[in-house]
Amino acid sequence: MRVLGIETSCDETAVALVETNPWSTDILAQVISSQIELHRPYGGVVPEMATREHLRNLPLLVPQVMKEINLPLDAIDAVAATEGPGLASSLLIGHSYARALALALSKPMVGVNHLEGHLYSPFIANRRAVEFPFVGLIASGGHTLLVHALGWDRYVKLGSTVDDAAGEAFDKVAKLLGFPYPGGPEIEKMAAKGNPEAFGLPRSFPERDNLNFSFSGLKTAVRFFYEKSPQMQADPVWAYDLCASFQKAVVDVLVRKSMQAVAQARVERLAVSGGVLCNNALRLELEVACYAAGVDLIVADPTFCTDNAGMIAGTAAEKLEAGAAPRVGDDINPNLDLFAPDPEQGEAARGMNAAVKLKSRQKQGAAKDPELTSPGQVEVW
């Protein structure tokens, strides 16, 4: 099966063609158009500019991919595109193009959850068959998430960030220190020359049973420390040490939480993905921790850690081959949830969720005032 994938959830325009075989899914061709230089002067992604670049680049990239492997467009079996989450205007360009192409070719259109694509990208990039169960760490500029993957569309959230994502913290600290966007690579360059033990910066949620993340406090600690040391800001060694200490704090938390998640879920595989996994210090610490614990670490080449279409096409192809019901791709959803209830359950699922939330609120109220009784109490069995 050959699937053409399109990814336009943020500021990369990407197109890829994958083909399934009995052992893995192979990426036959992939082209990624980065917009980093375009957005660098603004210190972040400008949605309107990103949308215009997608509109300009996408019609050029699809023929380029097909030309690389010398196949006509009607040789594909399905078209896949990112449905969400992401920037609405960016998602709309790729999703609309994919729907139109599928209609013109009389091929099925599959919508893919961007986070689900990241979850499986380490397997696809390493040409490995997806093996359940496993724990997935997604660490990027928009998400920091630990997932227990039990099977296709069977995901349990183990932990997530309660404020800033890991990549977002890198970008904000880099901006504070006067480095250009994106901040992650700049901080890593500086950190390579510094002492990671120079400054004692905070680590969030040290409790073993709490798998959530928080990087806002770490970012604020760096800001206060920086602003209270104006006499040191011109010293390059001081800047090297500050970057190294900050990077060490982020890496420590990501590695510690990932290993705790693996232990709690009682699995033997850890698949890690997202742009933050381009950081070499993080990759090394994960390798050391997983080797010591006897855990199979699955990590993609840095090229496949950032947003790419190979993970979108590959996820769609793997699910189609496995017989998992694909998303029909009717429309985009900028807030698409990886853990949303099965759409086939409809009102029943939404009603159950509402009942659980109501029961939780009533319990909280009862704890505050034991004499309080709530009419219409809902019991969930």
Compile the SSE list and pairings.
Blueprint: E1 2-7, E2 12-20, E3 25-34, H1 36-39, H2 47-68, E4 78-84, H3 88-105, E5 109-113, H4 114-125, E6 134-139, E7 144-151, E8 154-160, H5 166-176, H6 183-191, H7 216-227, H8 236-265, E9 269-273, H9 280-293, E10 296-299, H10 302-305, H11 309-322, H12 346-368
Parallel strand pairs: 1-4, 4-5, 6-9, 9-10
Antiparallel strand pairs: 1-2, 2-3, 6-7, 7-8
Helix pairs in contact: 2-3, 4-11, 5-6, 5-7, 6-8, 8-9
Task: From the structure above, extract its key features.
globular, 381 residues, Nucleotidyltransferase, domain 5, alpha/beta, five-stranded mixed beta sheet, single chain, 45% helix, 10 strands, disordered C terminus
Quick summary:
The protein has 381 residues and is of the alpha/beta class. It has helices at 36-39, 47-68, 88-105, 114-125, 166-176, 183-191, 216-227, 236-265, 280-293, 302-305, 309-322, 346-368, and strands spanning 2-7, 12-20, 25-34, 78-84, 109-113, 134-139, 144-151, 154-160, 269-273, 296-299. Strands 3-2-1-4-5 form a five-stranded mixed β-sheet, with helices on both faces. The chain has a five-stranded mixed β-sheet with strand order 8-7-6-9-10, sandwiched between helices.
